[in-house]
Design a protein that fits this description.
7-stranded mixed sheet, 331 residues
């Protein structure tokens, strides 16, 4: 392995994705961006400066119709281009579910592998400053349920850049989820080209007492929880999945076998959420090593409220993770 130091600088999550887009578009003329109002940079600045460099033929403002955006993206992908489609808020994908579910995810299978659909669908999910019920959802469970789609959910700028580069290089459709709460968060990010392979989890903190498995913005809440637990002499191991499909289940199960306890946490609704799949997979692979039943931490089964206190009551954070760890340790 090379000992060469990779230059890094602090940048925001949004800036890191602009970096990834710019590198991909310079490298491959087939890469283009399309969505609503993206020529001026997008809702969260995630496309800032691309229109000035690459022009309207490759940074394309689309009508206010998610179905049209996805239909054009699928058509472009199957005819040889590599589109990156912006859905702004993840709820907006619901207006394009036929194109996502019945077209993008199934084309490779239905045509016997003769065609691929190399597109990336970028969507902002999660809560942010009382965005209320129609702009605060976490819908990754919908996408992970569908064969043919890959799903990633980075938690920091470096992974945002590396996973987006990997997603654009994929020959299958990728749902790229960028949580609104962390778009402005800054962190050390490689300045040059950077790739994070899909299907590779990261150990953010090593521990011996309990494994916390999470992704996206909940990783930040879990890091706070780990520090608080350490003050109580509870050493938690933190696994950041980064990629939900493909899933690095080996990393998760390996950690659980060492600690014997596991908490699965996400911002999405707990009932029917991706955490249920994780718990089922962990239990089937590591049942004998578990000291107690796995615990899920997720949002209450209710629409996300506008009121900040009610929003906090519905969506979990570090407090709920700490409480879950205490319960597991006492068992």
């Amino acid at each position: 392995m090379s000992s060469r130091t990779v230059p890094v600088r602090r940048m925001s999550f949004g800036q890191a994705t602009v970096d990834a887009m710019r590198m991909a578009m310079r490298e491959d003329k087939r890469v283009l961006v399309l969505g609503e109002d993206i020529s001026w940079g997008g809702n969260f600045g995630q496309f800032r400066g691309l229109a000035e460099e690459f022009g309207p033929d490759r940074v394309i403002d689309m009508p206010i119709s998610e179905a049209i955006i996805m239909a054009v993206s699928v058509g472009a992908a199957v005819t040889g281009l590599r589109p990156v489609a912006s859905m702004s808020f993840v709820e907006f994908t619901l207006g394009a579910m036929d194109e996502i579910v019945n077209q993008a995810s199934k084309f490779r299978y239905m045509f016997g592998g003769q065609v691929s659909v190399p597109l990336v669908l970028r969507a902002s999910d999660g809560i942010l400053r009382s965005s209320a019920g129609q702009h605060s959802s976490s819908l990754e469970g919908l996408f992970t349920h569908l064969p043919g789609l890959k799903v990633v959910a980075p938690s920091n700028p470096a992974d945002a850049k590396g996973l987006l580069r990997a997603a654009i290089a994929e020959d299958d459709p990728v749902i790229y989820l960028e949580n609104k709460r962390i778009t402005s968060k800054r962190g050390p990010t490689p300045t040059g080209d950077h790739l994070v392979p899909l299907g590779s989890a990261a150990v953010r903190r090593e521990g011996t007492d309990v494994t916390i498995v999470t992704y996206s913005a909940m990783v930040l809440q879990a890091e706070v929880a780990c520090r608080r637990l350490a003050q109580e002499s509870i050493e938690a191991e933190l696994i950041d999945l980064r990629s939900l499909v493909p899933l690095d289940l080996d990393a998760v199960v390996g950690s659980v076998r060492r600690t014997g306890r596991v908490i699965v946490a996400h911002e999405a609704w707990e009932f029917g959420g991706f955490g249920a799949e994780l718990v089922a997979s962990i239990t089937s692979r590591a049942f004998k090593e578990l000291r107690t039943a796995p615990v899920r931490v997720g949002a209450a089964h209710a629409p996300i409220p506008f009121s900040p206190p009610l929003e906090r009551a519905v969506v979990p954070g570090a407090d709920e993770i700490v409480a879950a760890a205490r319960r597991l340790i006492r068992v």
